[in-house]
Amino acid sequence: MNEKGMTLIVKTITRLTVGLIILFGIYIVSHGHLSPGGGFAGGVIIALSFIHIMLAFGKEIAFKKVNQAIASFFESLGAILFITLALIGIASGYFFLNFLSKGEPFTLFSSGLIPLYNLAICFKVGAGLFIIFITLVLLKIPGEDSEK
Amino acid sequence: MLELQILLVFMIIGAMIAVKAKDLLSAVIAVGTVGLGLSIAFLILKAPDLAIAQLVVEILVIIILIRATIRKDLPFSTSGRWFFNTFVTFLFMIVFLGFGYYCMKDLPGFGEPIMKISQRFVTEGLRQTGAANMVTSVVLDYRVYDTLGEATILFTAVIGVLAVIRKVGRKR
After folding, report:
1. Is B118 a residue whose pLDDT tops 70?
2. Looking at the complex, does the CB of residue B154 fall below 8 Å from at least one CB of chain A?
3. Is B170 on the interface with A (CB under 8 A)?
4. I need a labelling partner for B20 at 20 to 30 A (CA). Which of A63, B56, B106, B168 fits?
5. Residue from B155, B104, B170 nearest A123 by CA
6. Which residues of chain B does A35 touch, with a Cβ-Cβ cutoff of 8 Å?
7. Residues B126 and B60 in one domain
8. Which residue of A has its CA nearest to B72?
9. Residue B133 lies in a domain
């Protein structure tokens, strides 16, 4: 991978569009129970926005925004949040009980725990795929030829 | 359904080009066209959730494959046993089509599922879960154990990739 990133045109376009991509991912996640999408697709879109920064600007600037420790934190946070929300249900019934009130349908704050499950899956999928990307693409396997 | 059949022919041609292409970058791009065609096919069959997920994952996989293959001259297998290869290919195609002909006759028709519980998900889903998106009400309420298993698979995959490629603790 080129350390300096790509040309000035790509950097300018990236600077303009990457915020919109993250915003679209947040929209997909938060409206997962109302419109097509959900935690998986939104998480991958957010991971793709960081991959976009990394491809356009090079490794160093992207690692200032998000590094492997932050990605591991979000990965673990998603898993723990998912399991914790499922375990709280045992207190008043059974595993995965949707104990919050359903609310008014077709509004943003409705259907109880489902938006929180979407959020947990978004953290998990986005951080996990980002970790897989930086591991497979950036890290060099020892014994292999170094950068040509 | 004519546009769906045109799309399927396009995907088959893309897959054949991906198999027969001379260099790896062309093959990866041809695989990308197959994924894009699959995404549009989901959209034609009225499954926008799957279309979004397929498109997004396809982009990520194409980026990873291009970065992994763009500057390595991996050896390309061009063996001379073309007669044996072609014979085996046609043999398996005939066997598969023969079995498929007898299996497909017993499948239920399009839009008439065997499991009657899906009708209940459609009619009762909004009232019982409060989620307007029916796919979410199935994935995150009725069948949430499947989602837990999927999340576990992804977690295990990340741990496996990190364990295979890590630098720390690797012995020569």
Report:
1. yes
2. yes
3. yes
4. B56
5. B155
6. 132-133
7. no
8. A148
9. yes
If asked whether residues B3 and B55 sit together in one domain, one would say yes
Range A57-62 average pLDDT: 80
Element (H, E) at B153: helix B144-165
Report residue B46 as tokens: 């009225």
Q: What is the DSSP string of B13-70?
A: HHHHHHHH-SSHHHHHHHHHHHHHHHHHHHHHTT-HHHHHHHHHHHHHHHHHHHHHHT
Domain contains B14: yes
pTM: 0.83
- Tell me whether B59 touches chain A (CB under 8 Å): yes
Residue A5 pLDDT exceeds 70: yes
- Dump pLDDT digits (tens) for B26-65: 888 999 999 999 999 999 998 899 999 999 999 998 988 8
Say yes or no for a CB contact (<8 Å) between B140 and A125. Answer: no
Q: Are A44 and B61 in contact (CB under 8 A)?
A: no
Residue of A nearest to B160 (CA): A132
**What's the average model confidence in pLDDT over A110-115?**
84
Quickly state the pLDDT bin for A92 (edges 50, 70, 90).
confident
pLDDT higher than threshold 70 for residue A126: yes
Report how many domains make up chain B: 2
Whose CA is closest to B155, among A6, A79, A99, A67? A79
B120 and B71 assigned to the same domain:
no
Contacts of B134 (CB under 8 A, 6+ apart): B121, B122, B125, B126
A111 and B49 within 8 Å at the Cβ level: the answer is no
Q: Which residues of B touch A117 (CB under 8 A)?
A: 140, 144, 147
> Which residue segment(s) compose the domain that B6 sits in?
1-76
